[in-house]
User: What shape does this take?
Amino acid sequence: MVRLAISVEGTTEELFVKKLLVPYLGEKGIYATPILLNGNVSIDRIKHELKKISYSFDYVSTFYDFYGFKHKALGETKTSLESKISESINPELKAKLIPYIQMYEFEGLLFSCPEAIAKELQDDKLNAWASDILAAFNQNPEKINDSTETAPSKRLERHTDYRKTTHGPNIAKHMGLAKIRGMCSGFDAWLTKLEQLGCPNPNKLS
Assistant: This one.
């Protein structure tokens, strides 16, 4: 059994990992454990957190939102942040690390299935509302934007009765990992890397 720690930004991500990723990866011989960072995500905090937990696990990954990441440089990207996370830790730990930044935040994944949003929030009109938003971003939930007014969570909180820790993981569970992976290429690429940890030679990650 491969022991994998996933450092997560908040309780919503923690519950998502527990409800969907833990059982899925467990079937592949990977024992995943979400470890709560509890907001205020920055390179300095991540550096200390990963150092603290890495010695107790075979591999360590991250699951943080781009939207809420603190002290981003002008022109920062998902790739540049993931590189900074990798560069921040001790060289001997790098082989154990799979850094991942979610674009633009966890709630973007929920727009993979407008029907699931409507079902969980018990409002049929939300299917059309969420479908229109998805269409505006070329059917790519991971492009729903980085803004204090129009980020995915802000849209949900403004237009629905959405509560992050209650509804977020439940909506994701309604739609399932296959749907999310089919709509969100960044998330799919990350989960593919995690799956490979269960293969005979996980050091050859692609």
Notes: The two ends are 20 Å apart (CA to CA). The chain has two domains: 2-105+185-196, 106-183.
